[in-house]
Amino acid sequence: MRPVCEDCGSAAIDWLQRHRILAVFIVVAVPSLLHGQQVATDLNEPADVTHITAGPPEADGLSSARAIDESRVGPTGVESPTQFIGSLLRDQRTIWTSPVHLFNAKNRSKTLTTVIAVTGLVFLDPKDTPFFRRTTAFESFNHVLPGKATQWGLTILPISLYALGEIKTDRYLQRTAQLSVEALIDGEVVTTLLKDLDRRVRPIAVQGKDFGSTWFRDNGNGITGTGSFPSGHAVAAFAIASVISHRYPRRRWIPLMAYGVASAIGLSRITLCSHFPSEVFAGAVLGQLIGLRVPLGR
């Protein structure tokens, strides 16, 4: 008779093998959705900042975010082109000097947890990814979220928000759109450089069944980030979701929807075999860090 613990372990492994997509979704989505809830709970926004087209509040009810906007860019709440370029340059300085602070007392545990999680997923990539290469179970899902469509969607969303803010005379919404573009550009710069450094082959381009030998093997042009790690779609989606969630936390459905859509985009990169699960998870973490801590100064 086998020990109970062995039976439980075998059952767990069997469940994961039969429900890979659910397991991957849990890994990618749940931390982000919980983070969305935390943003909605923790941030101190006034009750009048409740929806994405809200007009300006009364003078005595200015939120901390609106006050920061005015202190940085004046009463218009929107940066000029010169100010925007300056913000991008400051962002990049912050991003590339941030490793100095990753292992200080405040951030050490979070950094170690993230590193362990990403490393574990990298080791699991060769075991998980062949399933997504073989299966046709996600064709409908992949048809809804193809790579080009999500890329264009992530680009058009901030532009649409800015245009809506212009129509509604909502400078707060316009500033949100501007911060989203800032986070999007910041993420693209970082992602491109990292991909050119690691040159990891995408799962869909792996020849045969050797999913373990993928690093430093993509001989692209070395300019456009032809590698695979991290997922640029995940970085962009979670960066925008983080900005929107921070700016509109009072209505809980907004962070949940923002992170839910970002998670679906990240999941599609796995089912399309455009990225390994570890790359999507790393992209989600990086996107949140950029979206929250760089343009918003948190």
Named CATH topology: Vanadium-containing Chloroperoxidase, domain 1
Radius of gyration: 21 Å
Name of the CATH first level: Mainly Alpha
Helix-strand sequence: HHHHHHHHHHH
State the helix count. Answer: 11
Topology diagram in text:
Elements: H1 4-18, H2 20-42, H3 64-73, H4 81-97, H5 108-134, H6 139-144, H7 147-168, H8 171-198, H9 232-247, H10 253-271, H11 277-293
Question: Explain this structure to me?
Answer:
The protein has 298 residues and is an all-alpha fold. It has one domain (69-99, 106-293): Vanadium-containing Chloroperoxidase, domain 1 (Up-down Bundle), CATH 1.20.144. It contains eleven helices and no strands. Helix 8 packs across helix 11 and helix 9 (232-247) runs parallel beside helix 11. It is globular.
Give keywords:
298 residues; single chain; Vanadium-containing Chloroperoxidase, domain 1; mainly alpha
What's the gist of this structure?
With 298 residues, the protein is mainly alpha-helical.
